[in-house]
Request: fold
Amino acid sequence: MNDYLDLAGQLVMVRLFGTDIDADTDAFLRTYRIRGACLFRQNMVDAAQLTRMTGALRDAIGPQALIALDQEGGAVVRSTWVPAPPSAMALGAANDPDLAREVGAAVARAVRALGFNWNFAPVLDLNNNPHNPVIAERSFGADPEQATRIALAWMEGSEREGVACCVKHFPGHGDTHVDSHRDLPYVDKSRADLERFEFAPFRIAAQHSPAAPAMMTAHIVYPALDPVNPATMSHAILTGVLRDEFNYDGVIITDGMDMHAIAHRYGVGQAAVNALVAGADMVMAIGSRATQIETVQAIAAAIRDGVLPLADVQARLARLGRLADAHPAGPVAYAVEQDDRALMHRAWRAGLTALRSPTRPPRGARVRLVARADVVSDGVSEAGVPAASIAAALSMLYDVDLVTFADSETFDWAALPDDGRLIILASTARRRYGPHACATWRPDLHLALWNPYQALDFPGPALLTYGFAPPALAAAVAWLAGEIDAPGVCPVPGFDAA
Reply:
């Protein structure tokens, strides 16, 4: 069984549970021959700690280690102290492939300096669903050709700097109203509709020269393709569509198998085997240590019993080996960090979008800032910008009175003092506003600092930043000060006529 365990572990990526590689973790990685690790915010303290941790990972796993993170940009970043990249939709609003290429390269320089060689980005989901709870500004837009052109330019920049990309979430997570972290979504579209929309970016990425080095699967059921299995466990989708129709020979990795769409319906071991049989090359086992061991053991048993034929396993190992050899892990010097910070500021400004002709309050104006009191993470993204930080930034221009709310559906907008202050609403969460707020709130100016679709919840003028990172807020303040324009064009439906 040990030989099968050695093979099985090389098909698994795990999450870790601390900020160093302790003796138990080191023994686990070596005993089960784990090939990959994905690090999250809770694994990171600062550059020195993280570089030590990725170095210890590479020592434990070996020279073909795959050390990954989600550094998409916008709200989905894990290393928060490096130059802050714009969200995908900010780059889509700028619609400049050369700028996207430079941003992708800068992201890669930052994470490679920390020892990573695989970034789970860019997102190729096309977002035409205003109520999508998990994609929103993570998408480059809704037009397949434009969004894919910007995304692949970003990917080319990353590849140039030696970090493998992983486009996601095949065959498309953009038109869902359910977050697969919490439940199993369905996209009930015809095959023809999927071909025209969801499939298009992934087909282009598969057939691009060079092709995307890796793709991540979606935990979504597409009844027109497979009425039973989510894409992650569908042979018809992973092998039939991606391998056979698209002729894709890069790495296929699953999304996290601990997500409720999978974990609440299937045993972790069986789900992992199902995904590999369907055509995946690597399973992302980011649950507990116990479920990680269960995953490896189930895969080993499937190899032993011929459920996963040895020839198929060797083909998967070869693809993973090629990916690792082409993108070796290990830190490199980061000599242009300050230049990259300036680039990110310029990129955030390029995407800044004005909606319904907003006017700038004059300097020194008396304004009332309304913002959410808490900025908790939704589990996918980092926490938003605190209300006090926004108030401090606006105080450089205005006399600011800050009012916070805990729950938008119970906050009484009519109770705000009628004292002549101009009311600025700053939105600092991804979730759309509910019916009470939409019906009764009337800001004079809406700063949509995260999800651009929130600007559609109210009829007044808005400024869209597509994110809340410090350079995004700085861009909004620069616009308010009259120092810059807002040249971006929102790349999803509904904003041109709003």
About this structure: Confidence is low (pLDDT under 50) at residues 177-182. The longest helix spans residues 97-113. The longest strand covers residues 366-372.
